[in-house]
Amino acid sequence: MKSPLTYLSATLSVSILLTGCLDQEESAFDKRVQEENKMIEDYLDSNQIEAERLSSGIFFEELKKNDSGSAVDDEDIVAIHYSLRTLDGKPLDSLTADAAPIRFFHAQNAPNAFFPRGINIGTGYMREGEKYRFYIPSYHAFDTYSFGQLLPKEAILIADVEIQKLEDEDDIKEMNRDSIQSYIQAHELSNVEEPSSGLFFQTLEEGDGDAPKSGNRVKVSYKGYYLDGEVFDESENNKPIEFTIGTNSVIPGFERGIREMKEGEKARIFIPSDLGFEGGVQVIPKAIRKDFLEEYDIRNWRPFEPVIFDVELTDIQ
């Protein structure tokens, strides 16, 4: 398993879907675009639905307008509720208003922060508080990817999307801080300190060695998990990872936490997303997330969520 501690951008450099299409002869892709365009138009006609077509090939209906809402802009963090189904009506996933919304990083020049990417593209035409229905051709959805009986390849999708809120980095920092503090209170954790802005630290077992400094090579055993307990990575076969302090080779919050420790110490580090994995890639339906990300070798980091690391600083050189 690749360690998620490596400090790399996970959101904006992914170029996956459409690669197959671009490798085909242009005429073959054009034919597919025309076929799917007709399938959507036939569906709309047969159901007496009036929808507009974007230049991207995505069709949309306005289900709820909010002219006073802020328009979605590049680099907004968009919080949404949704429902997702295939063009023939098969339900795939939904997130209703009584649940916390999911979030993703919106950028028209980087639609791969969200799959199906048509939702990222489509929300660029919306305002906060609005609800749209998108008819998404497969080349803006999951292309030839399929998942068991749930999602067939080249599936055309219908997505109802409601924007609950447009957020910025400060909103996410506040949300992460509140989530971490709620976790600490709910689990009745003691001796939790806040050594730097946003980072929370709990000593589990004292160490008797020195604290690491820039340039030191350290060995660390770890287990990383989300606030709901889902483990996303841990030291393989209990073998520590090694890295050099001060070289930006791990996420900032992890190194800051290690700097608070002494050799031999065990600790728990609570890391907000701005000091962790930041945006990540959002995928719906949720049932396909793990398989889809593995299929295309995308690291499975949830967008804008805090993480916890249980760590042991085993050696300093």
From TrEMBL:
<keyword id="KW-0413">Isomerase</keyword>
<keyword id="KW-0697">Rotamase</keyword>
<dbReference type="Pfam" id="PF00254">
    <property type="entry name" value="FKBP_C"/>
</dbReference>
<feature type="domain" description="PPIase FKBP-type">
    <location>
        <begin position="75"/>
        <end position="167"/>
    </location>
</feature>
<dbReference type="GO" id="GO:0003755">
    <property type="term" value="F:peptidyl-prolyl cis-trans isomerase activity"/>
</dbReference>
<dbReference type="InterPro" id="IPR046357">
    <property type="entry name" value="PPIase_dom_sf"/>
</dbReference>
<comment type="similarity">
    <text>Belongs to the FKBP-type PPIase family.</text>
</comment>
<dbReference type="InterPro" id="IPR001179">
    <property type="entry name" value="PPIase_FKBP_dom"/>
</dbReference>
<protein>
    <recommendedName>
        <fullName>Peptidyl-prolyl cis-trans isomerase</fullName>
        <ecNumber>5.2.1.8</ecNumber>
    </recommendedName>
</protein>
<feature type="domain" description="PPIase FKBP-type">
    <location>
        <begin position="215"/>
        <end position="317"/>
    </location>
</feature>
